[in-house]
Amino acid sequence: MNVVVIIPTYNERDTIVELLDSLREVTASNKRYTISFLVVDDTSPDGTATLVSGYAKRHKNVFLLSGKKEGLGKALLRGMHYAIEKLHANIIAQIDADLSHDPKVFPKFLDKLNKGADFVVGSRYIPGGSIPDNWAPYRKVYSVVGNSFVRFGLGFPQVHDWTGGYRVFAKKYFDLANDELSKYRGYVFQIALLHKSILNGANVGEVPIHFTDRRFGHSKIAPAEYIRNVFEYVITKRFYSLVAGTFGKFAVVGTVGFIINTIALEVFVGLGFHPATASAFGAELAIVSNFLFNNSWTFRHRKITGLKRIGKFFQFNMTSLGALLIQSGTVAFGVWVAGRDSYRYYYVIGVGLGLLWNYTMYKKVIWKKQ
Ligand SMILES: Nc1nc2c(ncn2[C@@H]2O[C@H](COP(=O)(O)OP(=O)(O)O)[C@@H](O)[C@H]2O)c(=O)[nH]1
Ligand SMILES: [Mg+2]
To answer: Which residues cross the membrane (predicted)?
Structure first.
């Protein structure tokens, strides 16, 4: 099995040799894999490439790939293609060149792979891992919040570190994601690759790492651009699919129901009914509409047919009653703790909770997976 360790560099001449020495040393005793090291340099003005090409002449498993500067994502992509096509990698690894990632931990990544993981990430946010103690509080918060946004935003909380660049994974997952990856030039590439791999069924393993500050040079990350890209990625991948998917349809159906409810109320009041009765008629009509449209559209992949519809419709009425109780319960609670004037706020919260309740009940009970 060929492992190619990709090391992206931009102005890293102070650390690249120490890193390569150290990586070669910790992997020397390994028998299982043929390991090579590929430095992907973007024509660093500090002469990193000259150093590396000299080093590569002395060590036959060290390679240099030079190119023009187009961002970290592009450099990694170029490196991965080269690793697969020219160096016949079966396994791809990745590590930062500035010694923020401890090369001594590298064998642990391979151990995890041996134990059945397909994609191993170095994790700062699990026991045994850490971010630097000397970071200012704002930087710690920034790091933790940013990572959590991705972690929970994409909906895979079981993976704790999304933004790091210390990883080892099977080539297959690169191949599966390849087409889409060229869209991501910058640091967001790392998130996209991990995300696609999980969606493609990769079994993710985590190795705790202590991330240390670089001692030389400076970070090439452009925070504003990075934040924008990460936001864009998470929002388009997750929230968009949520809105365009089941949840969006649920919202449309609910809005139609609300309109029916309101019109019916006015019509029945106009016909001379008591407003309470009119409102109950309206609510039941909305329930009928919600049931029919959710059944034939929102959840059509789990459509209820035949006589079963009768029992389910009854259940659906109970669910709606539940939402009603949640909503008025919230208003009652709000008025009790915050006074009568606050009822509108609690009404909004109550409606929100009621929606959440309905959506959950529809998904887990009424139209639950068989
Ligand atoms: N080839 C290449 N490497 C890059 C580029 N940007 C960053 N790197 C490398 O990617 C790694 C991580 O970058 P760094 O600036 O340390 O990011 P930070 O640790 O998140 O602050 C380092 O080895 C950098 O030299 C780039 O545009 N091209
Ligand atoms: Mg760094």
So the answer is: 239-260, 272-293, 314-339, 345-362
